[in-house]
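Protein modeling request. Please complete all fields; requests missing the sequence field cannot be processed.
Requester role: graduate student
Desired output: 3D structure, token encoding
Chains: 1
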Amino acid sequence: MKIVGEYSFNHGKEMIETEYASELREVKQVVGLIYAADYKTKVGREKTKSGRMLYSPVELNRAFTRLFFERGWAKHKVASDYSDMYYIADYKPEKVGKGAYREMDFVKNHLGIEVQFGKYSFMVYNVAAKMTIFHNLGFIDAGIEIVPVKEFAREMSTGVSYFEQFTWDLEKRGVSDIDIPVLILDIAK
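Delivered output (189 residues):
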């Protein structure tokens, strides 16, 4: 796999290249290893009803997880204790959110990474909300979002979003004063 595009959200590229150079090298190394000749067979494909072989987002995520864990990155999970103080006086809900949590795919040295082979809404949520929340909780100072280019997304077994759509929305949204620096990496096979 290779990196074919970069989008610097809130000066993410500049900050990460300066303050997280060794972590960025590891990220680039992991991306390159996903389809290296000796690793290719570990990334699963699924056969469609028409017989077409497509990449499995689940298997791609497993490959990223294995490689990041080997390099000392860790998932970071935070319990979500939902408040009931905002309901109107006569409404009594059942206990909401028992066992609920938010999770960052990988964290190392206050740099958070999300690998996104899922639906579009998660991409925007990761940058505009989740990374800000993890920053406010003191776990990260910057982030990297790894997403597929459209032509790669077309070769996946489930409908996933892609870099071009995501960066267009971020450009039109703009940067808010609460946003943290994020580098979006666009990948292709």
